[in-house]
Protein 1
Amino acid sequence: MKVNQSGNLELIVWLLALISLYAFGGASVHTFSLCPLDNLGFTWCPGCGIGRSMHYFMHGDFINSWNYHPLGWFAVGVISFRIIELFKPKIKKKLWQMY
């Protein structure tokens, strides 16, 4: 089985995740959840609300972001940093090939 070492798939996944959270993450109606604790009927989960928090943070609504989950800003920062790190080798390679 061949493993993609270039990071293209990871880059696409993180970009799609941030774009979809930006566009659709603030749904006020709670319908479907990927959280296993929520699906088991628990009312509290340490990660629940982080998606909505990230959505509101990216829209500049910092109070709602903090109210949904205090670490939403941190998650956006970590994912953004990873996206930048995945872009760096591609930029260096293209600049090197120009000369």
Note: The first helix runs from residue 8 to 24.
Protein 2
Amino acid sequence: MTSLLSPEITTVDAMTDRCDRCSAAAKLVVSLTSGGELSFCGHHANRLREDIVRVAERVVLEEGFDWAGK
């Protein structure tokens, strides 16, 4: 399913999640349009930005993280 609108983007002071790809500290959590959530470190969030935007319903960023997908 492809999202026709940009995902809702919010920020939080800090995150406690770990990246689902490499277990580093998460900087971004994405709620998928198909259900569920994935967490990404800064490296993977920026590397996968096009895919994240395509499937995201909502994106939560850690304050101070400059995500390339905005």
Note: The CA atoms of residues 32 and 56 lie 5 Å apart.
Protein 3
Amino acid sequence: METTKGFVSFVGAGPGDTGLVTEKGIQCLKKADIILYDRLANPRLLRNAKDSCEFIYCGKLPERHTMRQEKINKLLVQHASKGCYVVRLKGGDPSVFGRVGEEAEELAANHIAFEIVPGITSSIAAAAYAGIPVTHRDYSTSLTLRTGHTCKSNAALHGDGQLLGDTIAYYMGMKKMLVNCRELINQGKPADTKVAIIQWGTLGKQKVAEGTLETIQAIIEKGHIESPAMMIIGDVVELRKKLIWFDKKKFSGRRILIAKASGNPFAMEDYFTELGAEAYSFPIWKRKIYSFTKEELKVIMHANRLTFTNASSVDILFRQYTQAHYDIRDLPRNIEYQTEQTKKALEARGIMANKAEISDASSIVIGSQSDICPEKEAYSTHEWLADKRFDEINKRMLMEEDWETVIFPNKAAVTSFIKELKKLDVHHLLDIQFAYIGESVKEYAMEHGFSVIDEAVQSELKRMNWRD
């Protein structure tokens, strides 16, 4: 793939679950200079982008477009013409009702190179997560994918009717659901044909409603099922009774925020997501690395004892020693660590360090700006800054979901959570129920207005399985 002269990758983001995107898609995101992303593309995927990458939101809602298609086409041409590597991130598969043909045609007309990276299409994935295989030897030997709404330019394509395939999947069909159901009945489909509506398929906020062509409209209105949702029609829907699996997860349907004060891995988010929750880490951080002078490196090298507070600081310091052509075998014999991750980072470099203890012995502390005590002799390797590129994403995520609980791993996370909520003008989450790690964190959170503990989440945290 040649990207130096301007190139566009149309990348399928998959149906929502971040584990259902291709490895090639992730590699494209890591290299991108510009990412234009849709509403249905999981914004968590943007965390793979490099720090210099620009995000452009092209979200579309029913009857309300954040950005018109003509504008999107123009931006793709504009940025690629400047020599940028552009990723157009689309929910599901870009070639299945993703308008990739129109956008690619615009690039071809302007002699801009591009590629199409397929993704798992939403109908098949959402049905699978709902316990519905779209084909089955005893129920269905064919599958038809249809758009739930037509426009003047493609109305003629429906001349053969809609009754094609044992299983029929409708995309974007919520607005015209009743019309489509009636049309299928008029064309001979029995009124008692099974129907499943799957909202936000493959995510922790997934909701499924079941009915028939005749009853489904009333059922979704009662259950408040809205767009985005897939409609699956056919006898295979009956299999959900036997094959339901995703809905059985321990925290299925729960909405949990994880407060963060640094850019450490998203282990806790991954853990609760695996348990079926809609989990989201907030805020997102990026790292600003400090460079040491040769004099500072010498001082550290000749210390009696070194204490590392985190694994990132180990990586940064050792990298700078290598760049300065120092021999790390000249480091002090007495090296200590404060966390298990730090211990592992040191062991990876052949250093068997000791657990840091409270002592009067002199030591130089190496860590991030936020975890260094001013009264100790210390050197900061980096600091974590809130990534402003995610402000728009975070505000949309926080406002559009009914978040139930926030997890505070440490005191700094309480502080950063409150600060970023106020910055984004999202005040309704300032008294959300919470869970915590450590009694001191609990007390600190309560001092700052959080009063109700989520006992179910708290009990899960005490099991300590999230640390594995």
Note: The first strand starts at residue 7 and ends at 12.
